[in-house]
Amino acid sequence: MTVLAWFSELLSKAALRPQRAEMLAFHRELQGLSGRDLGFFIALVADIRNRLAPRWDLLDPAAALRREPQLCAVLQRQIAALTRQGRTGEAARLALWLHTLRAVAAPELRAPARAIWHELERGLPYARAAATHLRVAASVEGRGPGPLVDDLAAFPRGFEPAPLRVTATRAPAPAP
Fold first, then answer.
1. If you write DSSP's letter for every residue of 64-121 in order, what string do you get?
2. CA 2 to chain centre
3. Which superkingdom does the taxonomy of this entry point to (predicted)?
4. Measured distance CA(41)–CA(118) in Å, rounded
5. Number of other CB atoms surrounding residue 62 within 10 Å
6. Within the chain, how many helices (H) and strands (E) appear?
């Protein structure tokens, strides 16, 4: 390895450290939420994903990055603007997609991103009821039809829940 290649790799790893730290902090925040709260988060994340779908298919993050290589920077700017405006909930929903896209771009970040998506699984049993509640609340408050929440259980390609592994076990032999 040349000195230039070694230095470049060192800089790349240094740049990933804060991103990894952000992802781990995000995961800790999700761990502190109840399944019901995660259900609401899933419904709102699906809404953001569906609203962005005309431009980017976030369920295929690799394709979204190929279509727009600067997508991480675009989302990062939007998150910063939302945070400055005090709209931290919206910023958190976009941050989930930013973390996912970063993990596709940098394999070193895949494990924490998978942990985040795995944590969201706890909210799946509550997501449909949360989406219904959000639609009714939007309608009552006159804010339109509410969130676009098709495919609540859809996970981005490469971050799907691992299938359950069923192993056959033998019954103990009868006692003589």
1. HHHH-TTHHHHHHHHHHHHHHTT-HHHHHHHHHHHHHHHHHH-GGGHHHHHHHHHHHG
2. 37
3. Bacteria
4. 14
5. 14
6. 7, 0
Amino acid (1-letter code) at residue 115: A
Residue spans of the domains in the chain: they are: 34-140
Work out the number of other CB atoms within 10 angstroms of the CB of residue 96. 25
Q: Is 29 exposed, middle or buried (0-12, 13-18, 19+ CB in 10 A)?
A: middle
From CA 137, how far away is CA 146, in angstroms rounded?
Answer: 8
- Helical (H) or strand (E) element with 13: helix 3-31
User: Could you give the CA distance from residue 30 to residue 27 in angstroms, rounded to a whole number?
Assistant: 5
Q: Contact at 8 Å (CB) between 119 and 27? A: yes
- Mean pLDDT, contiguous 10-residue spans, the chain (176 residues): 51 77 95 95 91 92 95 95 94 95 94 95 92 79 68 89 56 54
What pTM did the predictor assign?
0.81
CA dihedral 141, 50, 89, 85 (to 10 degrees): -90
For position 125, what pLDDT does the model report? 93
